[in-house]
Amino acid sequence: MKIYLVGGAVRDKMLNRPVTERDWVVTGARPETLLDKGFTQVGKDFPVFLHPKTKEEYALARLERKSGQGYTGFVCDAGPNVTLEEDLLRRDLTINAMAQDENGEIIDPFNGQRDLAQKRLRHVSAAFSEDPLRVLRVARFAARYHYLGFSVADETMTLMREMAHSDMLKELTAERVWQETRRALMERDPAVFFTTLEQASALSDWFAPLAPFKHAYSTILTSSAGQNMSLPCRFAALMSYLSHQDVKALTTALKCPNDVSALALLAAGYADKLLHVSDAEALLTIFNQCDVWRRPERFALLLQICQLKARNEQYAWQPESIERPLAAAQRVDVQHIIAQGFKGPEIKAALNQARLNTVREKLDF
Questions:
Q1: What else is known (predicted)?
Q2: Which of 70, 84, 93, 274 has the lowest CB atom count within 10 Å?
Q3: What are the helix (H) ranges across 203-344?
Q4: What's the pLDDT score for residue 157?
């Protein structure tokens, strides 16, 4: 039995990037071998084990053969005779197909070190085209390493286009697409994820409302990353350029988490309105429709997106123009209105009127 450090940990160490997790491949072993050593098996489709102390993942070297459609349409062979090189051959990119043995020696059968030096994202073998998720993964790696000067190799981009034209990406599940999208959005250059998909003719499969990927989309995403915004804010900033209907369709198709979808829908529906609101009645309507009274934290995020969009469009706007009347309206005391003798539906109407009067006083246009 031999154990090798593989994949991202080897790659990022060579790039002088922080190694956040380590994955291991075990050759010459059966599941019973690791179970007897106290490992816990967690893999369902193929043998993956957690180390009893470090909880890092150890996978038996395996071969995969395409047997059907989709991300899981593979037959796996993880027998003790599978070699390290055979395991590395099934990986997506050459820079991810390197290993390090216990002596620190690098095993690099597919010239990953050369591609690191040349800053190329290149596929390992023709088996790349068997898994449509790899198109999204390459786009994500392009976003991650763009700041270092990496680009997709021409032959890999050609293969990605062929896969997109065959409609393979439509086989993917929404969960897998969102996972790659979520991770890509949190990279330093998230816009590169979408521009790479567009170059590969793969943007319209899951992100049709974003095709073509406009310059404004790219710049606002870059700005959101530069300000280290959260995932919901980055996604919502991008969605602020789409219609409410398109965002609803996109977030539903991707099965986005509720917090991501909610902020994205607010950005699509109200960012432009907040940037160009011209009277107290319109502003109070926005406050009510955004449920600002019960969800002030979410509305504060929306204002951050508005500010980002205003700068992106070189439009003179400050969040204080909205925050000041909002803060005043939030101080209106419903108990004071009840004390004046209003009852039932009258209370809501009187409260709304009091807020309107306050907003009108504080609005500075």
A1: A single active site specifically recognizes both ATP and CTP and is responsible for their addition.
A2: 70
A3: 203-207, 215-226, 231-239, 244-254, 258-276, 280-289, 296-312, 320-330, 334-339
A4: 98
137 marked as part of a ligand binding site: yes
Nearest 10 degrees: CA dihedral of 231, 235, 236, 241? Answer: 160
Give the Cα-Cα-Cα angle 134, 135, 137 (nearest 5 degrees).
Answer: 60
Residue 167 counted as an annotated binding residue: no
Among residues 108, 156, 118, 83, the alpha carbon closest in space to that of 6 is found at 108
Check whether 30 is labelled as a binding-site residue. no
Annotated binding residue at 21? yes
Q: pTM above 0.70?
A: yes
Is 8 among the annotated ligand-binding positions? Answer: yes
Output the pLDDT for position 343: 87
Rounded to an integer, the average pLDDT of 225-236 is 98
CB atoms within 10 A of CB 110: 21
CATH of domain 1-118: 3.30.460.10
Mind listing the pLDDT tens digit for each residue in 101-146? Answer: 999 999 999 999 999 999 999 999 999 999 999 999 999 999 999 9
> Tokens in use for 157?
């981009």
| Structural tokens at position 112 | 């990953």
Confidence of residue 165 (pLDDT cuts 50, 70, 90): very high
Q: Do the Cβ atoms of 82 and 64 come closer than 8 Å? A: no
Q: What confidence score (pLDDT) does residue 364 get? A: 67
Written as one letter, the residue type at 314 is: Q
Question: How would DSSP label each residue in 289-325?
Answer: HTTTTT-HHHHHHHHHHHHHHHHHTT----THHHHHH
114 annotated ligand-binding residue: no
Domains in the chain: boundaries: 1-118, 134-207
The CATH number of 134-207, from 1.10.110, 1.10.10, 3.10.450, 3.10.260, is: 1.10.110
- Residue 144 annotated as part of some ligand binding site: no
89 to 125, 188, 243, 253, 356: CA distances (angstroms): 7, 29, 44, 33, 67
CA distance 50 to 54: 8
Indicate whether 335 pLDDT > 60: yes
- Output the six-digit token pair for 365: 């246009």
Task: Indicate the residue type of 192.
Answer: V
